[in-house]
Amino acid sequence: GHFAPPEGGAELIDPKLRNSHEFPKWLNSEETREKLHGKKVMMYCTGGIRCERASALLDQLERQADDGSFKTDGVVMVRGGIERYMRTFPEGGFWKGKNYLFDRRFEQVPEKKSAHALAKDIESQCCVCSAPWDLYRGQHKCVGELPAPARKCDVPVLVCDACQQAGTHWQTKLLCPLCKEGYVAPQTMPALPGDAEAAEAAAAAEAAAAA
Predict the structure, then answer these.
(1) Which of 37, 122, 129, 148 is most exposed, with minimal Cβ within 10 Å?
(2) Does 98 share its domain with 128?
(3) Both 69 and 110 in a single domain?
(4) Which of 61, 48, 45, 24 is nearest to 186 (CA)?
């Protein structure tokens, strides 16, 4: 799921992340910086913790650009993340879809939103037959190839019940939406304060061990 801003509201930016390790590279890309420069940024995540880290990284990148070439108009976060937002707005508010969880609950939905309304919100599809589907079951993962060092995409993908019951001939079709469109994430990691010191310390430790 995702937030669906009202007409005339904020622009929703999809960072197209396969995993959280890609976020610094996405934030460091020229395209992202151009979109965020001079804008008020609202971040949200499942429970709020990753937003704290993301906003700290954004602050570092802004301070590095001391010439003013990259500066937002401030960052706000959804306190408590999507989980708290759904409890605060049990009919859904501006949230569309489900909140995917990394535990046995699997997902969270607005308590007072009808099953019909939830069904209308579905934008995701079975990666095999493209039928509307939003349940992660079976621990299926994308087989798409990525540039080194990742090599393999390996993110969870959606496979509907009908395709799972049809057999295993569809295994080669297990591609996430990003791999299907051939998307390659930005590859340049930002040079952050402390990186040089960490590299020097590692080199010194290696030299000491060799001695």
Answers:
(1) 148
(2) no
(3) yes
(4) 24
Its pTM stands at 0.81
Domain assignment of residue 154, given as a range: 124-183
Residue-level length of the chain: 211
Structural domains of the chain, count: 2
Which of 123, 139, 155 represents a domain boundary (last residue)?
123
Active site residue 45: yes
Mean pLDDT over residues 21-46, rounded?
95
* Tokens encoding 135: 């349940």
> 179: buried, middle or exposed (CB in 10 Å: 19+, 13-18, 0-12)?
buried
- Annotated catalytic residue within 45, 51, 129, 179: 45
* Interval 85-118: pLDDT, tens: 999 999 999 999 998 877 777 788 999 999 999 9
Which of 73, 101, 123 is the last residue in one of the domains?
123
